[in-house]
Design goal:
With about 120 residues, the protein is α/β, with parallel strands linked by helices. Helix content is about 45%, strand content about 25%. The protein contains 5 helices and 5 strands. Strands 2-1-3-4-5 form a 5-stranded parallel beta sheet, sandwiched between helices. The longest helix is centred in the first third of the chain and has 11 residues.
């Protein structure tokens, strides 16, 4: 079974830890690391070599949209799923324009999130 290398980026430790706990039991997803902001994600991509990134939109320092834009410009094949509580059309539009492959609300079930990771 091929594993999907996943990087989790969120500025809230509880969210990062919860995502790790939720995804860890799935044998086909390998969590290569976690980051607390967009700049840390940008700096970690080459070293950690994720195939998929779960990226929060609203973060300090560098937000998820800016980080996505920069990561995609250097790694055009990278798959990024924006993970957020914001449902507004502007956030969705900006995320997709930046190169995100998908957009998930944090209210989604763990099963739906894992399905999305596999799909992208």
């Amino acid at each position: 079974m091929k594993q999907i290398n996943l990087l989790i980026v969120d500025d809230h430790p509880m969210i990062r830890e919860g995502l790790v706990s939720m995804i860890k039991p799935y044998q086909d997803i390998n969590i290569v690391g976690t980051c607390s902001d967009g700049q840390e994600a940008i700096d970690s991509v080459d070293r950690l070599a994720p195939e998929v990134i779960l990226m929060d939109i609203k973060m300090g320092k560098v937000n998820g949209i800016e980080a996505t834009r920069e990561i995609i410009s250097s790694n055009p094949g990278m798959k990024i799923i924006m993970l957020t509580i914001f449902e507004d059309a502007e956030s969705i539009r900006l995320a997709l324009q930046a190169g995100a492959s998908g957009y998930m609300l944090k209210q989604a079930s763990g099963e739906k999130l894992v399905d999305s990771i596999r799909l992208v």
